[in-house]
Description:
With 298 residues, the chain is mainly alpha-helical. The chain has helices spanning 3-7, 18-43, 59-63, 68-100, 106-113, 115-118, 121-131, 138-145, 160-185, 190-197, 202-230, 234-239, 251-261, 265-297, and strands spanning 45-46, 54-55. Helices cover 71% and strands 1% of the residues.
Amino acid sequence: MSSADAAAPARWQPPGYWPFVVPALVVVVGVIVFPWAFTLWMSLHEWKVGAAPAFVGLSNYARLPTDPRFLDAVWQTLVYTALSVVLPLILGTLAACVFHAKFPLRGFLRGVFILPMMATPVAIALVWTMMFHPQLGVLNYLLSLVGIPPQLWVFHPATVIPSLVLVETWQWTPLVMLIVLGGLAALPTEPYESAQIDGASIWQMFRHITLPLVAPFLFVAAMIRMIDAVKSFDIIFAITQGGPGTASETINIYLYSVAFAYYDVGYGSAIAVVFFLLIIALAAALLVVRKRTQGAVA
Length: 298
C-alpha cells in the first residue's frame, strides 16, 4: 500500500446499530417533531376550519398580549399551578413522615391513602361535582355541622379555583407522599442518632436533617406536579368547562375553546406554542431554584 493511500482519510461507514435506530427516529419524527413543526406552521397562518390558510406571519402572536381573555387564562393557570404544587408538597411530605413511622396497619393505610391516584379523572370530576352542589352536596352539609354557612364552591368566581385545587390536591398528594417516602427510606440513621444525643427536638431534626436530605426528592415531586398541573385539562373541563363565565379558564381550556369551539386553528396554534414555552420557562425556573438551593446547602 502506498503512502498516499495510507494518508487518505478512512471512508465513513454507517455504524452497525443504525438499522435498530431508524425505527425509533421515525417514531420520534412522526410523533413529536412533525406535530410541533406543523403547529408552528399553522401559528403563522390565519386558518379557520372550512377556509384556506393564509400566511399572516407573527400576527397571531402579536394578538395575544391584547387578548384579555388570554391574559386572564395565563394568570389563572399560574395561580392554579402554584396552589396545585405547594399544597400537595406540604401535605404529601407530612403524610410521608407519618407513614414512615412504624405503627399497626401501616401498610393497609398506605394502600388506602393512594387510592385517589387510581381513579380516572372523569369519575373523580363527577363525584366532586356532586359534592360541590350548593344544596345537595355533602361538603356544605359538613360545613353546616360546625356552623359554617354553605359555600358556592365551583359555582362562584371567587371560589372556583381554590375548589378545583382541592380536587387536584386530594388526587395527587399521594404521589408526593410516595416520592418523599422513598427518600425517607433511603436516609441514613447516624445524623438522627447524633441529634438525639445532642438533645434536638423532633422539629429541629425535621428542619435541619430531614428536609435538606429529602430536598432532591421534593424537587422531583415539584417538577412532576408542576408539569402536570400547568397542563391540567380533564378535571377542570369536566367540572366547570372553564366557568362560571371564564373564572376557571386556564390556557389549556382557552386553547381548546379557540381551536375546537371557535375553529380558529391558526390562533389556537399560536396559543399552543406560547403554552409550550411557558411550561419550559416554569421547568427552567424550578431547576434554577434547585441549583441555588443545593449550592446554599453545600
